[in-house]
Automatic annotation (TrEMBL):
The lineage of its organism: Bacteria, Bacillati, Actinomycetota, Actinomycetes, Mycobacteriales. SUPFAM superfamilies: Putative cyclase. Gene3D superfamilies: Putative cyclase (3.50.30.50). GO terms for molecular function: arylformamidase activity. InterPro entries: KFase/CYL (IPR007325), KFase_sf (IPR037175). GO terms for biological process: L-tryptophan catabolic process to kynurenine. This is Putative cyclase. Pfam families: Cyclase. It comes from Nocardia fluminea.
């Protein structure tokens, strides 16, 4: 029996505090890469691994794994998050009217977008979540993120790092009805490992430096039935007990097609996002949320190959604790 199996059997819904503390102790990467580290698990993704990942491009076909950034998105005001507001500053009608002030008939269009940085497809940075006032690598939260933003682990510090081997674990296809898991489905280590076995072959293996994507099918359902409570409501997602797997596999990052990455409602009474509380400040793991994995999943199922070259650089907003991303998978 593995330590992870023991953790799953011992989960006590009434005591999230103890479970979080124990998992944080078991899975801590504090000081693993030195006291000044700002990259966390992205240290597992080095130049050699990026070079090998380039060989995964066989056909040159690319897939955007991003949802749209527009007013038709999933946000409904939780934590003051809104969908993007796109405003035109200059338009073709302005150009036709000759009111733009340019010489010799030149005209143009210009625009601006206002949005929370985590309103659609995005990365959680290492300054996004704290545990008892401590940020990644044991730093005081107040010394990391101030009113000026994340002064230490801002998302710009990883702008050139999230490029490498991507792996899709289509848990929704393996365990779901059709290809969709029901809301509240807790994806355990056993589910992840069985999905790897079912998909078969070395292309599904997960290891050091990989960027893992987990498809639940919730976004598929939201597209069909409407957003409803996609942003913040019940959802399939990773079980708290996968913390040990996330630590043991030494993956660089992980992303899902859901709003909150972990299963909701959470597996403890009176808890909120406990896996985040371990994964980000203690493991140093980058979490992606609201990724669109459907088209890629169809391709992977058809070809039987679940690995790909992935470029998933966040927009380097200085001091941001999370940022939008348009991940591109190339097969």
């Amino acid at each position: 029996m593995t330590g992870t199996d023991t953790a799953e059997m011992a989960l006590d819904r009434s005591d999230p505090e103890s479970a979080i503390a124990a998992a944080a102790h078991r899975c801590s990467n504090w000081a693993r890469w030195g006291a000044d580290d700002v990259h966390g698990t992205l240290n597992f993704l080095d130049d050699a691994k990026r070079a090998r990942a380039g060989a995964l491009i066989r056909h040159g076909r690319s897939f955007s794994l991003s949802q749209s950034f527009d007013t038709n998105g999933p946000q409904h005001g939780w934590r003051r998050r809104s969908n993007p507001v796109h405003t035109m500053l200059d338009t073709g009608t302005d150009a036709e009217a000759g009111i733009q002030g340019f010489p010799h008939g030149l005209g143009g269009a210009d625009d601006v977008v206002s949005m929370p940085l985590q309103c659609s497809t995005q990365w959680d940075g290492l300054g996004h979540i704290f545990d008892h006032g401590r940020a990644w690598n044991g730093r005081r939260a107040g010394e990391v993120v101030t009113s000026q933003g994340d002064q230490v682990t801002g998302i710009e510090t990883v702008a050139d790092r999230i490029v490498g081997r991507g792996v899709l674990l289509d848990v929704g296809r393996v365990y779901g009805t059709g290809t969709e898991l029901p809301d509240g489905f807790a994806i355990t280590t056993a589910h992840l490992e069985e999905t790897i076995r079912t998909q078969g072959g070395a292309s599904s293996a997960v290891g050091r430096g990989d960027i893992v994507t987990v498809r639940t099918g919730q976004l598929t359902r939201a597209r069909r039935d409407g957003w409803n409570d996609y942003a913040g409501g019940a959802a399939p997602g990773l079980s708290f007990t996968t913390a040990d797997w996330l630590h043991r596999t030494e993956i660089a990052a992980i992303a899902t097609d859901t709003w909150g990455f972990e299963v909701r409602p959470n597996e403890f009474d009176n808890a909120f996002q406990p896996l985040h509380q371990v994964a980000i400040p203690h493991i140093g793991l980058f979490l992606g949320e609201m990724w669109d994995l459907d088209a890629l999943a169809e391709h992977c199922a058809r070809t039987g190959t679940y690995e790909f070259f992935l470029v998933a650089a966040p927009i380097p907003v200085t001091g941001a604790v999370g940022a939008p991303v348009n991940p591109i998978a190339v097969v």
